[in-house]
Write a structure and sequence with these properties.
The chain is built from five helices and nine strands. By secondary structure, the chain is α/β, with parallel strands linked by helices. It has one domain: 3-Layer(aba) Sandwich (Rossmann fold). It has a seven-stranded mixed β-sheet, with helices on both faces. Strands 5-6 form a two-stranded parallel sheet. Helix 2 links the parallel strand 1 and strand 2. Helix 1 packs parallel to helix 2 and helix 4 runs parallel beside helix 5.
């Protein structure tokens, strides 16, 4: 279910693309199995990524700045019976989970620069979320963790990649698809002393 003022993952393609990857490609074997695995869904929207990560076996924290989105995500979490493994919090970027570190960080954040004028626009437009996400990601990703970052050729893809490189992260392409008018890329981001982009 997607409430009005919440970014729709199917209509706008990006959310569904990352959701499909989480559901079909992401495996627990990609992570150290000596602990309970945790995930953070930043900009959760309707909660689809959080729910799919929970299906894969993660304990999930889902965050969104849009209060309508957090209400929507909570409804979807309840409808799908993941109340025990998904917690939804309202707040800006990483602030609701300050001090925590995660095995998996998922994000399909605002990819366009500009001042959002409504709750709906919070889902795709921001003046600085690209820069802050890239700068702060190393502090919330465990040393052997993986971040999945979905970017579009229509947004400031280069700004995010430059920011991640400046933060010392290693960025590789996990999956890319050309949809004719738009290229969507899921980047896998990990800690790296070289900060290279492959």
């Amino acid at each position: 279910m997607v409430l009005p003022d919440v970014f729709n993952p199917v209509i706008f393609r990006t959310g569904r693309y990352l959701a499909d990857y989480i559901r079909t490609t992401l495996t627990l074997e990609m992570f150290a199995r000596d602990r309970e695995l945790t995930a953070l869904d930043v900009g959760t929207g309707c909660g689809i990524h959080a729910i799919f990560a929970a299906e894969r076996g993660f304990i999930v924290e889902a965050v969104d700045i849009n209060p309508v989105a957090t209400r929507c995500a909570r409804i979807n979490v309840a409808l799908n019976d993941f109340d025990e493994t998904v917690t939804v919090r309202q707040g800006d970027l990483f602030s609701p989970v300050a001090g925590q570190r995660f095995d998996l960080v998922m994000c399909s954040l605002p990819k366009f620069r500009g001042q959002p004028m409504s709750n709906f626009e919070l889902g795709w437009k921001s003046t600085d979320v690209i820069d802050r996400f890239a700068r702060e990601l190393p502090n919330v990703l465990k040393a052997d963790g993986i971040a999945l970052v979905l970017l579009t050729s229509h947004g400031d893809e280069r700004g995010m990649l430059n920011g991640l490189e400046a933060a010392g992260m290693c960025v590789t392409i996990a999956q890319r698809n050309h949809f004719g008018v738009e290229i969507l890329t899921i980047y896998q981001v990990t800690h790296s002393p070289t900060g290279r982009i492959d």
